[in-house]
Amino acid sequence: MDKPTLEIQLQTLPNQPGVYQYYDAEGTILYVGKAKNLKKRVSSYFTKTHDNGKTRVLVKKIATIKHIVVDTETDALLLENNLIKKYKPKYNVMLKDDKSYPWICIKNERFPRVFSTRRVIKDGSEYFGPYTSMKTVHTLLDLIKGLYSLRTCNYDLSEKNIEAGKYKVCLEYHLGNCKGPCEGYETEQEYHENIKDIKEILKGNFKDSLQQFKLQMKQYAENMQFEEAQKIKEKIEVLENYQSKSTIVNPKISNVDVFSIMSDESYGYVNFLQLSYGSIIRSHTLEIKKKLDETDVELLELAITEIRQRFHSKSKEIYVPFKVELGENIKVTVPQLGDKKHILDLSLRNAKYYRMERFKQDKIVDPDRHANRIMAQMKADLRLHEEPRHIECFDNSNIQGTNPVAACVVFKNGKPSKKDYRHFNIKTVEGPDDFASMEEVVYRRYKRMLDEEQTLPHLIIIDGGKGQLSSALKSLDALNLRGKIAIIGIAKRLEELFYPNDPIPLYLEKKSETLKVIQQLRNEAHRFGIEHHRNKRSKSALNTELETIPGIGEKTVVDLLKHFKSAKRVANAKLDELETVVGVSRAEKVYNYYHNK
Q1: Burial of 103 (C-beta count, 10 Å sphere; 0-12/13-18/19+)
Q2: Which fold has domain 256-364?
Q3: N or C: which end of the chain has fewer CB within 10 A?
């Protein structure tokens, strides 16, 4: 398939947060941007009149739009920063460097300090972030300071210096903000217990700290120290309400390739996320056409080899949704929990969105491929021997037992074929009997098709459960068509599909395309049947009273309705008005009928 036009690319963008990338006709990246809603933001470039000359030039150059879906606006902001730094696009004027976002550092020293920084130094210190704003960092540091007593000085607190009495406690000690490790008032072990808790808080794990504080609060309350207990309670509330994670990827996840796969009957879609120093630097989705009904494992192994060669990946570890064989030099991890599973799920979401977009594009520019895919999917989902290129769906419409009718709608290649729709007035059944009515219309429909040597459908759908299906089967048996046409019944709940001689229904996924087509068929049959029933009922109501007038035939009724337009106007007409239309004799009969009641 040729590359989709810009208009089609815009139509199929998701309404999700993410990062978009504009490329020119030569494949050079022009611009990277973030969006709360990708579809709205990107579309605005092409619908608004731009005052800025550079923006107008940029829009004219755009030939291709790529995007990466993420969970939140925060993630989009961080990912945008990573991609701008990597690709340095021409139209991103404010290129951001490593100082763009702050980190929280736990310094690699004997009594570690905890502070904010914009510089990541590889000296064994631990860094948490990056955070999107200093406000977040200050909130966290204030939280930590309020919960734990930590030193703020930059003294070298070696064992030798402390024993020599080199330092004296400062004002922070007297204010209760520090426990005085500089004079040996706090042991290294006690201090590191606090650091351990702080690391858990920065990772978003408050469980241990909460338990500890709740225990302290209980002890204070039991000792009647209510002011102290209230302070601890406030700390607990802050901890419970704070949402700590604002990183796109855990910084510890470095130089890893992430692969996920979505597949259907015809194609596989493999997404690749490349991680470097804890950040996503590339997203790419590969579409693979199936040849021999390959498994997801086979497709993923093939795609991983191809993508790694294409992008010259040297990563020693990959994350995948299931085990694959790639040789001994690559560590294969199948994440189950935590940050690793989160990034794998993000990759899978990107594969899903890519697949959805291709479906929408196919529907616009290559309807045949779209139809072929739907037909292959329906054949598999409904356990059919052949693709249901021609489907007919029957629905009965009788309301309060009056004017029973039935409708037959026809779909060809997954789309309505309205010229083939048919209405049926029930002829042989007295009263409201849905089963007998279904038996009659199915028999009449296929008896005529056989007599006229028309092509029979591949699938018949009966709107109703087991009873309706059994009635339709009687007619197929009578016409010797049992086994020659596939037939199923759909219950009112719609997810239940009934098959002949099988008491257990088949359940389809609520979001499956097969169910969507069946739902469309059922709704169309219902609409078409109700429309005919309504027309018949209204005509019946209109004509009934006029036709009951003694001495008045069908031709007189038609003449009166043509002239007066409604039965009500006929009833209200003057005698001379009626005479001019139907003559003296019949005019008197109509006039006397209405005025001598």
Answers
A1: buried
A2: Nucleotidyltransferase; domain 5 (3.30.420)
A3: C
What's residue 259's pLDDT?
93
Residue range(s) occupied by CATH 1.10.150.20 in the chain: 548-595
Q: Where in the chain is the domain with CATH 3.40.1440.10?
A: 6-96
pLDDT at 232 over 70: yes
- Across 82-109, average pLDDT: 68
Higher-pLDDT residue of 340, 64: 64
H or E segment at 257?
strand 256-263
Residue for token digits 């460097």?
A: 97
CB 370 within 8 A of CB 364: no
Q: Count CB-CB contacts under 10 A for residue 575.
A: 13
Decide if domain 548-595 falls under CATH 1.20.120.350.
no
When pLDDT is averaged across residues 466-478 and rounded to a whole number, the result is: 85
What average pLDDT does this structure show over 516-545?
69
User: In the structure encoding, which two tokens stand for residue 396, read together?
Assistant: 């009965």
- How would residue 245 be classed by pLDDT, with cut points 50, 70 and 90? very low
Q: Taking a C-beta distance cutoff of 8 angstroms, is the pair 282, 272 a contact? A: yes
> What number is the average pLDDT over the span 499-528?
79
CATH 3.40.50.300 fits 387-534, yes or no: no
| Tokens 């037939």, residue located | 487
Which residues have a Cβ under 8 Å from the Cβ of 39 and sit 6 or more positions away?
Answer: 10, 13, 14, 15
Contacts 24+ apart (CB under 8 A), 97-101: 100/130, 101/129, 101/130, 101/131, 101/132
Q: What is the DSSP string of 418-456?
A: GGG-EEEE--S--SS-HHHHHHHHHHHHHHHHHHTTPPP
- Residues 374-412: pLDDT tens digits? 888 888 888 888 888 898 998 876 544 455 678 888 988
| Fold type of domain 6-96 | GIY-YIG endonuclease (3.40.1440)
Tokens of residue 93, six digits:
């004027």
CA distance 66 to 284: 9
Mention every residue, 6+ apart, whose C-beta is less than 8 A from residue 139. Answer: 242
C-beta separation of 381 from 514 below 8 A: yes
Structural contact between residues 105 and 150, judged by C-beta atoms closer than 8 angstroms: no
Which H or E run includes 276? strand 267-276
DSSP state letters, 451-486: HTTPPPPSEEEEESSHHHHHHHHHHHHHTT-BTTBE
d(CA 441, CA 409): 13
User: In this structure, what DSSP letter does residue 392 have?
Assistant: E
The string of pLDDT tens digits covering residues 121-152 is 878 888 876 665 576 677 778 778 877 888 88
3-state helix/strand/coil string of 147-211 = HCCCCCCCCCCCHHHHHCCCCCCCHHHHCCCCCCHHHCCCCHHHHHHHHHHHHHHHHCCCHHHHH
